[in-house]
Amino acid sequence: MIDVTDIQSALDGYLTQHEDLFLVEVEVRGGNLISITVDSDHDSISLDTIMEISRYIEERFDRDVEDYELTVTSAGLTSPLRLPRQYRKYIGEPVIATLRKGGVEKGTLLAADEEGLEMEVIRMEKHEGDKRRKGYPTTLRLSYEEVKSVVYDLKM
Fold it and tell me: Staple 118 to which of 54, 77, 91, 111, CB 3.0 to 4.6 Å?
């Protein structure tokens, strides 16, 4: 069976030449079903790039030695964010965070680092001088352990 680290090592050469691209995930399931997900810091990834990555891998792993099935995809708008590098791509954009403890937070992604993310959410509060509750922007800090998934909010 082909090893995930072998695929990752092979991709390092390609990704070094294409600095705006990065590896999101590599999976190898039973029967050598290889699934590779890549993303870009700036743009969406073209079909030509996906095909180029597929050919790059196929040149390095001989099917006659060990047969495999290869799928290369890009992380789409509806895909959950997995890496801090993906989060940084969406700074300033609307996101939806589903929390592990239950509940959902919707807001604008403000920042992301290796430990977690910051979002601006609207909280209904009544401040001094208010006649009734109003929506006030509040910064919410979440660690990656606290979130089940974070996706781009297509509806905002």
Answer: 111
Predicted confidence (pLDDT) per residue in 126-146, tens digit: 888 888 988 899 999 999 999
In sequence order, the 6+-apart residues with CB closer than 8 A to the CB of 103 are none
Exposed / middle / buried, residue 80 (Cβ in 10 Å: 0-12, 13-18, 19+): middle
The reported pLDDT for the residue numbered 101 is: 96
DSSP at 45:
P
Closest CA to 23 of 36, 13, 41: 36
For the sheet with 116-125, list strands across it.
134-143, 116-125, 104-112, 94-99, 147-152
CA separation, residue 90 to residues 28, 79, 85 (Å) = 28, 12, 9
Q: Are strands 21-29 and 33-40 parallel, antiparallel or unpaired?
A: antiparallel
